[in-house]
Amino acid sequence: VSIQRQATNSLAAPFQVASSAMAYFFNFTTVVAMFISFFSLMSSMFTNIYEQTKEIGILRALGISKGWMYRIYIYEAFILVMTSSLMGMAIGFITGTTMTLQQALFTQLPIAVDFPWLILVVVFVSSALFSFLASFSPIRYVLNHRIVQIFRLT
């Protein structure tokens, strides 16, 4: 039994190395895609905040603190990035599962479907980081002005 297990492990080792290399590649690809999306998010947040300067000025005049204003726009960016990322992952997982089931049907081989939990963690962490970076600078630019000057920015 021990010899059989060693033979099986020696045959499976290259597949485990290939699987590990693919996991690193897909994680790297995910981070690169999130980084590219960061620039789109940053321009969208800058435009959004610039167009809402009058509303920001009114809220500041009503007594909303700068901390709350930072949080509002950071949360908005986080929700935007996170929901779009989760929708993309769900659509990709459903498509991948469908293709895997189709391949299993044609080849009559049992093929396992695994959810990429590590990629989900990478997406969550990068969403939090990039949403903060994309929204902090534009809202800081607006909030560094006095309330009266905020109304004149547009």
H/E series? HHHHH
> Which structural class matches the secondary elements?
mainly alpha
Distance between the termini: 77 Å
- Quick one: biggest sheet? none
Proportion in helices: over 70%
Rg over CA atoms: 24 Å
Quaternary: single chain
Q: Please state roughly what percent of the residues sit in beta strands, choosing from under 5%, 5-15%, 15-25%, 25-35%, 35-45% or over 45%.
A: under 5%
How many runs of DSSP E, i.e. beta strands?
0
Give the mean pLDDT: 87
Counting H and I runs of at least 4 residues, what is the number of helices?
Answer: 5
Shape: elongated
Q: State the low-pLDDT regions, or none.
A: none
How would you sum up this structure, described in words?
- This protein is mainly α.
- The chain is 86% helix and 0% strand.
- It contains five helices and no strands.
- Helix 1 runs parallel beside helix 4 and helix 3 packs antiparallel against helix 4.
- The protein is elongated and about 80 Å long.
- The model has no long low-confidence stretch (mean pLDDT 87).
